[in-house]
Amino acid sequence: MTVITLTTDFGLRSGFVGIMKGVIYGIAPQVKIVDISHAVAPQDIREGAFTLQRAVPFFPAGSIHVYVVDPGVGTQRRPLAARLGDHYFVGPDNGMLTPFIEEAEQNKKSVEFVHLNNPKYWLPKVSRTFHGRDVFAPVSAYLASGVSLNAFGPRITDPVLLELPRPIKTEHGWTAHITVIDTFGNLATNLPAALLRGWSDIRVHLRGVEIIGLTESYGHKQPGDLIALVDSEDYLEIAVVNGSAAQKLGAAVGDSVEVVYR
After folding, report:
1. Does 73 lie in the same domain as 24?
2. 199-204 contacts at long range (C-beta below 8 A, 24 or more positions apart)
3. CA pair distance 199, 187, nearest whole angstrom
4. Whether residue 111 is found in the same domain as residue 201
5. Are 10 and 125 contained in the same domain?
6. What is the pLDDT of residue 226?
7. Domain end marker among 123, 156, 189
8. Of 118, 164, 198, 224, which has the fewest Cβ atoms less than 10 A away?
């Protein structure tokens, strides 16, 4: 059974996500659909990229990942399908695949992109504002049903790439950046925990506040305490026990986080 994942900024109040699932099941009823997130900040391609990056490694080879964070819908931006290593991706060519492209190239994995310009695999009527329903959902379903990637359109070699923030080494530590804010208001950063191992007296600075040391887990401090810890994907995270660090600090995706240690 092929897995198709969905990552969007649609939210759940409207029926957009359910409609996409209906299109997919109408073409490929045998697939399994998994929601990664529909709460990506509206039009925030970078947050979408980091959200997808953290989830994809936990899915089996051959999974198809549909991503629709698409502020350019209805313009000249290309619809895209890709095979990066042993995973497939379907969505707008807007840079959201940048982390996967870079990882595949660094590890010499197979990389293939096609421009989705074959209307045979779209819905009969394509709107200017809902390509998730009319293009990406049906393409993913046909792909899951065994249609070759090359059938959807010509190969391309110039996908859009984003300039994503990366940890910056400083004289006494690192400058990291907030990449994802989850439902609880926890602030995930792009600083891998491996870069902190072996160092003591770690201090984290952001939004005018200092956090001393790393905490093992949320339950090791009192409700309301502001803490730094290693999250479930092995990145530095800032959190408030039983509260929201985003709300407490007024933090946003992209904010800098200074980490100083001895």
Report:
1. yes
2. 199/261, 199/262, 200/261, 200/262, 201/261, 201/262, 202/173, 202/228, 202/259, 202/260, 202/261, 203/259, 203/260, 203/261, 204/228, 204/236, 204/238, 204/257, 204/258, 204/259, 204/260
3. 22
4. no
5. yes
6. 96
7. 156
8. 198
pLDDT-based confidence at 92, cuts 50/70/90?
very high
- CA distances to 49, 75, 109, 129, 155 from 91, rounded to whole Å, are 12, 14, 20, 14, 15
Maximal CA-CA distance, the chain: 62
Give the domain extent around 88: 3-156
Domain CATH code at residue 138: 3.40.50.10790
Residues 17 and 139 in one domain: yes
The average pLDDT across 66-87 equals 94
Tens digit of each residue's pLDDT (9 = 90 or more) over 93-152: 999 999 999 999 889 898 999 999 999 999 999 999 999 999 999 999 999 999 999 999
162 lies in some domain:
no
> Can you give the CATH number for the domain in which 189 is found?
2.40.30.90
